[in-house]
Every structure is written in C-alpha cells, then in structure tokens.
Amino acid sequence: MSMEKSYFDRIAEYGQLIVISGPNGVGKNTVIRQYLQEHPNARESISVTTREPRPGEEEGKDYFFISLKEFDQLVRSNALLEFVYSKNIGHGTPKQAVENNRKEGHNVILNVDVMGAMKVRALCPDATLIFIVPPSWEELEKRVRASTKLTDEQIKDYLECAQEDILCAGQYDYILINDEVNKTVRRLDQIIHGNRYSRNSMKAFLESYIESELKPQSDFANEILSM
Q1: Distance (Å, rounded) from C-alpha 170 to C-alpha 137?
Q2: CA dihedral 132, 135, 138, 139 (to 10 degrees)
Q3: Total of domains in the chain
Q4: Which domain holds residue 28?
Q5: 200 and 158, same structural domain?
Q6: Which pTM does this prediction carry?
Q7: Which of helix, strand or coil describes residue 67?
Q8: Cα 84 from chain centroid?
Q9: How many CB atoms lie within 10 A of CB 99?
Q10: Residues pairing with 131 in the sheet
Q11: Chain segment 54-102, per-residue pLDDT in tens
C-alpha cells in the first residue's frame, strides 16, 4: 500500500458524538464517569448554566457558569446544541466546544434528557443516541430513595418523570440495561467501538477513498458523484 494514500488516516480523525439519556437514579453519571476513566481520549461535554455553583463544583470542569444575559445571547445566536429554561435558570450544551473536540478526534459523551437528545439529533444526525434503563422498576425506586433526600411526594414526581422518559426509549439507537456498572460500561464500550466503522463515522474516509481510488479509474464514478 502506497504511503501516499493518506486518506486511511481519516478513519479515526473525527470523533463520535454519543448522547446518553435515562431516568434520574438509573446511574448514568456513574457509567459515564467509569467509561471516561477507562478511555482518557474521550471527553464529556461540559454544559453552561446560569445557576450559582454548588459546593465543590469547579468552573470549566463541572459547568461553565454564566449570566442569564450571556445565556440568552447564546440561544439567540444558535450557539447551543440543546438548551432548556427551568425556573428562570438556563442550561445548555455549547455547540462549538463539542465540534472542536470531535475535530481533534475525541469521542464526546453528552448526558442530557430526552428532549435535549431529540434536539441534538435534529442538529447532528450522525449522533448516536443511547438510553439507559434500570433492571427493574423496583430497583429504580430503591436507587432513587437511596441517593436523594426527597420527600415521598417528590420521589413520586421523580418516578412519574422516569415513566415518561422510559416510554421514549424507543426513539434511541441503543438501549442499555444498567444491571451492574462494569457490565454496562463494557456494553457501552462495545457500542462506541463498533460504531467507529458505521456509515456516518466512515463518511469522510469514504469520500476521500472514492476521490482517490474510483474517480481516476471510472467515468461512471464521476457521473454518479456529479448527480
């Protein structure tokens, strides 16, 4: 193989966008955190928010903390992949940061709710959407009660939202059952690794391959590409 055929380098030059959703309490953060520890080249997208930092949160690591005016400007300039206003607080995903990481070859993990995932899909059709479900409803309720200091009424609201989320799981590309974290992380790794060679991920390589290998040899290829 000629060393001049540099388009083979393009197989790994552009990172994937992996969107992960699931009901509160299902363990998304734990799964993502362990995956990132095992794959240091991957990046988790850092959201912008207009709320005040909580104890222990760091600027640029947990969130980018900005003013509501700055957030409104990002929304108006279409600089966010997805965003939401809740109780006059804005949360969103900066579009340019995600794109920059992907151009540098990093897979980007985005942890958002169902509505956010659908917004991302509309703007990034090549994104891979993964929904994480609990092994059982009883287990989800157990995790919610163990991880929060909420009243019974608040827990009831949490679980009602979880039902609505799970009913939307069919709109995702993959479904993961988080029965045990290590197993779930391995399954996530298999999805991301296998997706490396999907049609969307190989698009840049294929365009370069056709340009270099087929067009010089075939008038037919030229005709097809010009259509």
Answers
A1: 17
A2: -80
A3: 2
A4: 6-45+107-225
A5: yes
A6: 0.84
A7: coil
A8: 16
A9: 15
A10: 21, 175
A11: 999 999 999 999 999 999 999 999 999 999 999 899 999 999 999 999 9
227 burial type by CB count under 10 A (0-12 exposed, 13-18 middle, 19+ buried): exposed
Q: 1: pLDDT confidence band, cut at 50, 70 and 90?
A: very low
Question: Which pair of structure tokens corresponds to residue 212?
Answer: 């270099």
Whether 93 is in a domain gets the answer: yes
Question: Is the domain of 147 the same as that of 41?
Answer: yes
Of 102, 95, 100, the residue nearest 116 (C-alpha): 95
Ramachandran class of 74: left when φ > 0, alpha when ψ lies in -120 to 50, beta otherwise: alpha
Tokens 């698009």, residue located: 203
Q: Domain of 34: which CATH number?
A: 3.40.50.300
The model's pLDDT over 135-164, given as tens digits with 9 standing for 90+, comes to: 999 999 888 888 777 888 888 898 999 999
Q: Is 56 helix (H, G, I), strand (E, B) or coil?
A: coil
Q: How far is CA 12 from the centre of its chain?
A: 18
Q: Is residue 1 included in any domain, yes or no?
A: no
Integer Cα distance of 191 and 98 in angstroms? 20
Are both 208 and 147 inside the same structural domain?
A: yes
26-37 burial string, b = 16+ CB within 10 Å, else e? bbbeebbebbbe
